[in-house]
Design brief:
Elements (H helix, E strand, L loop, with lengths): L2 E6 L45 H12 L3 E6 L4 H8 L3 E4 L12 H9 L8 H7 L2 H10 L7 E4 L2 H9 L7 E5 L13 E2 L2 H15 L3 E5 L5 E8 L5 E2 L3 E3 L14 H6 L10 E2 L6 H17 L4 E9 L5 E7 L13 H8 L4 H15 L8 H10 L4 H9 L14
Parallel strand pairs: 1-2, 1-3
Antiparallel strand pairs: 4-7, 5-6, 5-7, 8-9, 8-10, 8-12, 10-11, 12-13
Bound molecules: adenosine-5'-triphosphate (ATP) and magnesium ion (MG).
C-alpha cells in the first residue's frame, strides 16, 4: 500500500481571548459577541489563525486513508526527523508553517531536500503568493489585471506617501504577508489621508511587516477554486460574494468582520452564491484571469484565487492561495469545498483528487500494488523519489515542476 505522509499544523486548543490585538481595533466588539471562538486568531499568536483545527485534520486524514497507509506528520520542529522516519511515498501538504515570510514553503522545501514527492505548489510559489506585492508584480508583468499598488515599509515610506500620494484615494491597505483576513477590517478602506495615516500606522505597528496600499476595486467579488495541472487545469464553479448579506452600512469586502464576527453559527451569513449568478461572458473573463494567474505563478494541483471587478467591470486578481482553506463542515462556509460540492464532488473526492494530481505529476503509484515496489526500494541506494521514478520507468522532471506549463 502507498504510504502517504500527511503534513499539517494543528491549531493549539486554547480559547481565544477577546479584545486581542486584531479585535481590539473594532470598537464594536463586546465580550461574548464573537462567534467561532475556536477559529479566532489568538491574542499573542496571530500566526495560528491559518493553522487547521483537529476537525479539518481528521477529515483530510479520513479522505486520504482510502488511497494508502496514512502517517500523520505534524509540521513542528521535529518534522524533518519524523518525515525521514516515516519515509512516505508521497506527502500530502496542508501545513501553513510557523516562522517568517517563507513559512508556507518550509514543508515542501524539506520534502524536496530529502527527495520526497509532495502535493501542491513548490516552495517558490508558496513564498511568492505569501507576498501580496511580489505576486502582483508577477501578474502585472504578464499583463494579468490586478489593482495598482504601492508598498509602505516603514514610517518614513508612509510620510513620503502622504506628501505625494502615488495613487488616488480611496486606497485599500493590507499587511503584505498575511491571510485569513488578519489585519483586514473595514478601517482598511482609507478615504482620506488622515485615515490612511492612522490605519497604515496601526498595521505597521501591530503586524511588524510592510503594508500594501491598493486602489480600491469597487465591483463584485468572486473566489475561484482551481484544480489540476497543465492543459487539464480546470475551474470549479465560481463562488460569488453576496455583500448584501452583510449588516446594513457595511463596506462590501470579505474581511475580518465578515469571516470571524458577523458569520455566527446561529445566524450564518448567506455570503456565497455557488455557482455565481453571472452571465457567460463574465464567467469566461473570470476564468481566463484565474487560469492565467495560476499558470504564471506556477501553482500546482490546487489553489484558490480571489477576483474582484474594477470600475470598468474587468476582473482583477486580488490574491492567490496555493494552500486553500478546506473546512469540512458545509456550515463553515469554506469556499473550496463549497465549489467542489457544486461540481458534484464530495469533500473526500476533493482531497483525493488533489493527492491523485500530485501523485500523477510525480509518477507515484497510489494504492495496493506499491507494496512490492517498496520492498525493492528499501534495498536500493538512490534517494527514494528518484528510485520510485526509475522503477516506474517514467521520465519526470526531477523538480516535479510544471512551472509556466499549465
Ligand atoms: N484592492 C482591493 N479592493 C477592494 N477590496 C479588496 C481589495 N483587496 C482586498 N479586498 C477585500 O479584502 C478581502 C481580503 O483581502 P485578501 O483576500 O487580500 O486577504 P487575505 O487575508 O489574504 O484573504 P484570505 O482569507 O482569502 O486568505 C478581499 O476578499 C476583498 O473583499
Ligand atoms: Mg483572500
Amino acid at each position: 500500500m502507498t504510504r502517504i505522509g500527511f503534513a499539517y499544523n494543528q491549531k493549539p486548543e486554547q480559547p481565544a481571548p477577546l479584545g486581542n490585538k486584531a479585535t481590539a481595533h473594532f470598537g464594536s466588539v463586546e465580550d461574548g459577541e464573537l462567534s467561532r471562538l475556536d477559529e479566532e486568531p489568538p491574542a499573542s499568536n496571530d500566526e495560528f489563525a491559518e493553522w487547521d483545527s483537529i476537525e479539518t485534520i481528521d477529515a483530510v486524514a479520513g479522505a486520504l486513508s482510502s488511497l494508502g497507509e496514512l502517517v500523520r506528520l505534524e509540521a513542528d520542529e521535529d518534522f524533518p526527523q519524523r518525515l525521514r522516519d516515516a519515509s512516505p511515498d508521497i506527502v500530502f501538504n496542508i501545513a501553513e508553517g510557523s516562522n517568517g515570510v517563507n513559512r508556507e514553503a518550509h514543508v515542501p522545501a524539506i520534502c524536496e531536500f530529502y527527495g520526497f514527492p509532495y502535493s501542491g505548489s513548490d516552495p517558490f510559489t508558496l513564498s511568492l503568493c505569501l507576498d501580496k506585492a511580489r505576486t502582483k508584480e508577477t501578474l502585472a508583468y504578464h499583463g494579468i489585471p490586478t489593482a495598482p499598488f504601492s508598498v509602505i515599509r516603514d514610517a518614513a515610506d508612509l510620510g513620503r506617501m502622504l506628501r505625494a500620494l502615488p495613487l488616488p484615494l480611496p486606497l485599500f491597505v493590507k499587511p503584505i504577508h498575511e491571510g485569513s483576513s488578519k489585519g483586514i477590517t473595514e478601517r482598511n478602506l482609507c478615504r482620506t489621508t488622515a485615515e490612511l495615516e492612522s490605519q497604515v500606522t496601526f498595521l505597521l505597528d501591530h503586524y511588524r511587516q510592510p503594508v500594501i496600499a491598493e486602489e480600491f476595486l469597487p465591483g463584485a467579488e468572486f473566489t475561484c477554486a482551481v484544480l489540476g495541472n497543465g492543459r487539464t487545469t480546470k475551474l470549479l464553479p465560481i463562488v460569488g460574494m453576496n455583500f448584501s448579506s452583510l449588516p446594513d452600512g457595511a463596506i462590501p469586502i470579505y474581511g475580518f468582520e465578515a469571516k470571524w464576527i458577523w458569520d455566527r453559527p446561529e445566524r450564518p451569513l448567506q455570503m456565497f452564491d455557488c455557482p455565481a449568478r453571472i452571465d457567460a461572458d463574465l464567467a469566461r473573463a473570470i476564468e481566463r484571469v484565474t487560469l492565467d494567474a495560476y499558470r504564471v505563478l506556477g501553482c500546482r494541483d490546487w489553489s484558490r484565487i480571489d477576483v474582484r471587478l474594477d470600475a470598468a467591470g474587468i476582473p482583477n486578481v486580488v490574491e492567490v492561495n496555493p494552500l486553500p482553506g478546506i473546512l469540512p463542515d458545509p456550515a463553515d462556509n469554506s469556499c473550496f469545498p463549497k465549489a467542489a460540492r457544486a461540481a458534484g464532488m464530495s469533500y473526500d473526492e476533493l482531497i483525493q483528487s488533489c493527492l491523485k494530481l500530485a501523485a500523477a505529476r510525480q509518477n507515484v503509484p497510489l494504492g495496493r500494488h506499491l507494496r512490492k515496489v517498496r520492498t525493492v526500494l528499501k534495498s536500493a541506494s538512490t534517494p527514494r523519489a528518484q528510485r520510485t521514478r526509475k522503477l516506474d520507468g517514467a521520465a519526470v522532471n526531477d523538480s516535479g515542476s510544471n512551472r509556466l506549463s499549465a
